[in-house]
Design a protein that fits this description.
306 residues; alpha/beta; Inosine-uridine Nucleoside N-ribohydrolase, Chain A; 8-stranded mixed sheet; two-stranded antiparallel ribbon; 12 helices; 18% strand; globular; binds beta-D-ribofuranose; binds calcium ion
Length: 306
């Protein structure tokens, strides 16, 4: 069991990830960020869902907009207007203490012990390391769901080149991925390989997961002809327990911050006689590009059925 800070823009698949984290990790706190929903809604959702899955970790409020871009639309068509399928009463308030302070103070108080799990835009993480660069060598690991590197044709999901979390704040993502933080990346290359069906979700017999995913499944059936969802954010949590189910490569990573490929994640593959190296000084990050999908799916079902 690892000590984690769970950083989320909590929508439907983030909620599945939180349910798994509550079963398998020690959650020090939940920090929220804009993304699938506005940050105030993310605070409300995190409070409500934490209570529903028996997690008593405190909830904090993080960034409400990207570092440099103008805010873009939420993910309402997929996750519902409230991010959780518009099916739950949510009496919780939007205000909370600062997520950035919580991240900085927790890492300083427990050097080399805290794993950050970030499953939304990376704005909170970028802001924390910009304000307190001393925490960079003190973070045990940062595990993110984000990006797409084109393995087996898995490219973008919000544009042909870009994945949602990275595209939402590419400047933050570029700062974080090119920093000295040790980052493990779970991109679409692996998350689009691990699909669960409506039948799988119903088999869990966890009514709230079935309720919140109903709209998501309908959207996916209408759009893709498949009543199911990629496990996306949950893979960042499962990585903590089952790293052997993934194959990884090490490479420095940069993010495109302008133009038609805005939000694209690029890894350095090699460069013969290249004169300019945009990856110079960037740490080699761990990229999960292969996954044993059957094993990950079985671990997920067992974790939530238990
Ligand atoms: C990511 O985008 C969000 O909508 C999901 O919650 C996940 O974090 C997948 O691209
Ligand atoms: Ca997310």
């Amino acid at each position: 069991m690892k000590k984690i800070i769970f950083d989320t823009d909590i929508g439907v698949d983030d909620a599945f990830a939180l349910a798994c984290a509550a079963k398998s990790q020690q959650i020090l706190g939940i920090t929220t960020v804009f993304g699938n929903v506005a940050v105030g809604q993310a605070v409300k959702n995190a409070r409500l869902f934490a209570q529903l899955v028996g997690c008593d970790a405190p909830v904090f409020r993080g960034c409400s907009r990207p570092l440099a871009l103008s805010p873009s639309a939420s993910a309402a068509p997929v996750h519902g207007g409230d991010g959780l399928g518009d099916v739950l009463e949510n009496p919780f308030p939007e205000e909370a203490d600062s997520a950035i302070d919580f991240i900085i103070n927790s890492v300083r108080a427990q050097p080399h012990e805290v794993t950050l799990v970030a499953i939304g835009p990376l704005t909170n993480i970028a802001t924390a390391i910009n304000l307190a660069p001393d925490i960079v060598p003190l973070v045990k690991e940062l595990v993110i769901m984000g990006g797409a590197f084109g393995t087996n044709g898995h490219a973008g999901n919000v544009t042909p080149h870009s994945e949602f979390n990275i595209w939402k704040d590419p400047h933050a993502a570029d700062q974080v991925l090119s920093s000295a933080l040790p980052v493990t990346v779970l991109p679409l290359d692996v998350t689009h390989e691990v699909l669960i069906s409506g039948e799988d979700i119903r088999s869990l017999k966890v009514p709230v997961l079935e309720q919140i995913s109903r709209g998501y499944l309908q959207y996916s059936l209408a759009k893709e002809g498949f009543e199911g969802m990629a496990l996306h954010d949950t893979l960042a949590v499962l990585w903590l327990t089952y790293p052997d189910f993934f194959t990884t490569v090490k490479a420095p990573v940069r993010v495109v911050t302008e133009g038609i490929t805005l939000g694209q994640t690029l890894r350095k593959i090699g460069a013969l006689a290249s004169r300019f190296d945009p990856y110079a000084g960037c740490r080699e990050q761990t990229l999960c590009l292969g996954v044993q999908a059957d094993k990950v799916k079985a671990a997920f079902l067992a974790m939530l059925q238990a």
